[in-house]
Amino acid sequence: MLKNKMAVVDIETTGNAAKKGDRMIQIAIVVLENNEIVDQYSSFINPHQPIPPFIEELTGINDQMVKNAPSFHEIAREIVERLEGAVFVAHNVHFDLPFVQNELQESGYAEWKGPVIDTVELARVLLPTTDSFKLSDLTNQFALFHDRPHQADSDAWATACLLQHFIEKLEKLPLVTIEKMSQLSVHLKSDISQLLTSMIAVKRHAMPNLPPDIEVIRGIALKREDNMDVLSPSEHSLKRDWSALLEKAFPAYEKREAQLSMIHQVQSAIEHQRHLAIEAGTGVGKTMAYLLPAAFYAMQHKRVVVSTQTVQLQEQIIQKEAKWLNEIFHHKLQIALLKSRRHYLHIFKFEQSLAEEEAQYDVVLTKMQVLTWLTETTTGDVDELNLTSGGRLFWNRIRHDGWFLGEEKDPWKKRDFYLRAVNKANMAQIIVTNHAMLVHDAVRKQKLIPDHHLLIVDEAHHFEDTCRAQWGKQLDYMNLKYIIGQLGAPDQDLLVGRMNRLVKELALVEGIVHLSEDSIATVAAEADTSFQILTGLFRNFATIRQGRQKFSLSIDRDIVQTSEWRAATYAFERLLSSMKQIDRCLQANLDQVKKSNSRLTDYQKVLSEEIYSFLLEWSEWITAVRAFFLKQEDDVVVWLDGDLRSLPGSLSLTSRRIHVDQQMKEHFFSKESCVILTSATLTVNDSFDYFLNGLGIPLDLIDCSVQPSPFKYDKAVRLMVPKDLPDIKSVSQQEYIEMITDHLIAMGQATKGRMLVLFTSHEMLRNTYDLMKDSGLMEDFVLMAQGITTGSRSKLTRNFQRFDKAILFGTSSFWEGVDIPGEDLSCLVIVRLPFSPPDEPLTKAQSENVKKRGGNPFLSVSLPKAIIRFRQGFGRLIRHETDRGLIVVFDRRLLTTSYGSHFLSSIPDVRLEERDLNSIVDEIEQWL
Asked: What share of residues in the chain are helix, strand, coil (percent, to 5)?
């Protein structure tokens, strides 16, 4: 047991910066000894300045509560006594400590100089798979339901309880893991090394046995591999009584006719070997509706592949539906998750990285996270980890890229995560993968996905775009500079320097080509020159619009004939030549190293594998440069994207095929005897034509069906359009933003937050967000905006649900995949109909192609795309049967144009109401 005295501190303040005059309004200290709470102290503090409304909303602490509280100097001695001889612990210690230091100094006490531990940093190390390291999320995870989050006494107690959990977890970790962590921890930002040193002393004295599910191999502790029982698929006696089977899986099962109908249709398609496109509205239960008949088919020695667009749905199938299916099939069904190699840890590479002297913070933190993770993971899949951006870069060094020297040379072969995933997939009856891997694998010579008899494509409205992305190319300045930077100079401990050292250690002479510093400098200079020329072209030809910073420029025939494009082509040809020279040199040297593989040390083997991984990526860059400048294809659209504020850094060159229908037909719909395509949004105006035309499926080979949502939208949803907003095309964007801001402020106050606002442009989102912030009318509200407030989509969504009075602004990915059930989301605002900008390169190219064939680009391209997106946005509001709320569409084109009816006919039957703002606000207050 550790005997350190720990003083767990939490404070509430008037703002974020002690040096700018913000002051404490509350402090709490919880003292632990022997990992037990022995003392708790808390006090409000008079800051002698007003508490901002946002802080009052966040903490519940107001000016009245601190009016008669002591000043800090009156309680300073009590604080000092509790801190004396302790380790200062806080959740984000680098926020709390400066405030305490500042107040101590102003009260005449010496600056506190003891050791500190940051429980955020400790959580990152010990909980590497946790989604969020916020205190409230961690306390929920450990069921620490403190009654007043964001008040210091409650938060300090919760942090102390977390610390107890972390120390208990350290006590359970194997000694070898903690010893390796201890060597790394001296480079962390807080004094976790002292905690680990104490723990090592305790463990060495007690010498506990390894937990039964842990084994130590080559000095690294890992979770023991699950026994992979090979099950023999056999004929089963289960009857296809779908309701009874679903009732068996779900104790609270309620019969849904749409789900049963979908099950019968999927079963029929499988039996008759027909393709099937089936739209299943929210609440149908489509995942089980396709998995259940697929499982029956799989049990007859017929392998099934299920592909999804999102990791979230993949994980859901493995974590939830797979378990339910196994209940139904008496655990006779094997379901495996398969991703591309690069998702999996290469343990040999990681093992050797531990021997390197490395002080870079993100690398050290990631190594410690992986050490913890190896005692927990059975998959080695990076998607389980919550890494920093720097940690993601380090992952590129330790990820799997196959083997250059052959898997038999890898001492970890028997524990290799990638081979384990492939073996599971080969033995599984159902394989769950993702669209990107499925599409990439389709064109590989050596397939990773085993032969199968049925393909199910969920979230199928993304399938065409995924094919475009996977079969297209991208070339961007920042990533090119990063990979060139990995080469380093010959005298640096980077790729070229390591290669030179490897050649020297092996005393290789024959066939060796030494890369000079000049050749590496040349490739870097050529990359700079090439993108500088593209920058000039971008500035000259992009249509600059006031108020916007990000633009796209189509590289059409007119651009290709300019002197600027010719200059760029010559520059990239020189770059390509330099890159190929480096490729030949490294490859030649690596081939010579391979001939000496019988005498390579482990470190030399791993170094060879790292260089091999680099060359795989380097060759992809060579292929991309060649595709853009030497081997341009017909039916391909190419464009430049850039942000005027950061050129050439933001420049990227992208190519996409205008049509992928023939390739999709060849790789999927001709080869597969049965493909099931499903999503909540496949139709436009009750027709599958738009969806099917893009996929290249002959209409006589596919059946189509719609299973509507069972939700009663007419009773759960009010759909409104403000009559006092102008038509979006009749005023300037700035005027329009000012008007919608007034509406959003009034509506936000009426809904008390709980509002999601969807935009089609980030510029409009930012301008609206800024106006609302600056209005002074939303100080009681928490405003969160994609691309402005830090955090991923899921993190922003969680934070939105945490606050009572919150408004969330989103664009792009927020139109779908956001799931906020219940009262947390009561009002959805769609600012404008989600048409792609007419100058968006792919849309523009598709439109021109339709025009050439005598068609109507608006009806064939722009309108169907917008309707699918509108339907996705509409679906954000009602996620469960008991949900209710309002949808307000600010874009009056829904009413004033002939095509507005197409949007309305593509969503559930809800009456559209046209009202002025005051009436909308009144209705909101009554409805909610």
From this structure: 50, 15, 35
Q: Cβ distance 769 to 788 under 8 Å?
A: yes
Q: In what order do the strands lie in the sheet with 87-90?
A: 36-44, 24-33, 6-13, 87-90, 116-118
Average per-residue pLDDT for the chain: 90
Gap between the Cα atoms of 360 and 897, Å rounded: 58
Alpha helices in 142-285 (DSSP H): 152-172, 175-185, 192-206, 242-249, 257-272
* Cα–Cα distance for residue pair 519/528, rounded to 1 Å: 14
Same domain, residue pair 514 and 592: yes
523 to 363, 393, 526: CA distances (angstroms): 27, 22, 5
Determine if residue 712 is labeled as part of a ligand binding site: no
Distance CA 599, CA 506 (A): 9
pLDDT digits (tens, 9 = 90+) for 125-173: 999 999 888 888 888 888 887 667 778 899 999 999 999 999 999 999 9
Whether pLDDT at 1 is above 50: no
**DSSP label at residue 881:** T
Model pLDDT, residue 886: 94
Q: Is the separation of the CB atoms in 429 and 334 below 8 Å?
A: yes
280 is in an annotated binding site: yes
CB half-sphere exposure, 860, CA atoms < 13 A = 17
State how far the Cα of 515 lies from the Cα of 512, in Å rounded to an integer: 10
Strand partners, 39: 31
pTM of the model: 0.88
Q: What are the residues facing 913 on neighbouring strands?
A: 720
- Alpha-carbon torsion (444, 447, 451, 452), positive or negative: negative
What does the block give as tokens for 445? 């010579």
pLDDT at 238 over 80: no
Structure tokens at 768: 């609206």
Q: Is the pLDDT of residue 231 over 70?
A: no
pLDDT digits over 873-886, tens only? 999 898 888 888 99
Task: Judge whether 214 lies within some domain.
Answer: no
Query: CA–CA separation, 836 vs 845, rounded Å?
Result: 12
What's the pLDDT tens digit per position in 689-713?
A: 999 988 988 788 899 999 999 999 9
Does residue 368 fall inside a structural domain?
yes
Amino acid at 121: E
**Is 281 assigned to a binding site?**
yes
Q: Is 536 annotated as a binding residue?
A: no
Look at strands 912-915 and 87-90 and give their pairing: unpaired
Return left, alpha or beta for 508; rule: phi > 0 is left, psi -120 to 50 is alpha, else beta. Answer: beta
Tell whether residue 282 is among the known ligand binding residues. yes
List phi, psi (to 5°) of 457.
-110, 105
For residue 329, the number of C-alpha atoms closer than 13 Å in the C-beta half-sphere is 28
- Locate all alpha helices (DSSP H) within 471-562, ordered by sequence: 477-487, 495-505, 517-541, 557-560
- The interaxial angle of helices 389-398 and 361-374, nearest 10 deg, is 60
362 by Cβ neighbours in 10 Å (0-12 / 13-18 / 19+) ranks as middle
Mean pLDDT, residues 574-594 taken together: 94
Residue 358's domain spans which residues?
Answer: 343-413
CB neighbours of residue 266 within 10 Å? 26
Question: Does any domain span residue 251?
Answer: no
**602 close to 346: Cβ distance less than 8 angstroms:** no
- Are the C-beta atoms of residues 172 and 211 closer than 8 Å to each other? yes
Same domain membership, residue 625 and residue 577? yes
DSSP 498: H
H/E stretch holding 33 reads strand 24-33
Contacts (Cβ under 8 Å, ≥6 apart) of 170: 126, 178, 195, 196, 199
- Where is 653: in which H helix or E strand? strand 652-657
Residue 201: CATH number of its domain:
3.30.420.10
In sequence order, what are the residues at sequence separation of 6 or more whose Cβ sits closer than 8 angstroms to the Cβ of residue 74? none
Query: What does residue 144 show for φ and ψ, rounded to 5 degrees?
Result: -100, 85
Kindly state whether residues 532 and 433 are assigned to the same domain: no
> Do 519 and 651 belong together in one domain?
yes
For residue range 835-849, list pLDDT tens digits in order: 998 889 999 999 999
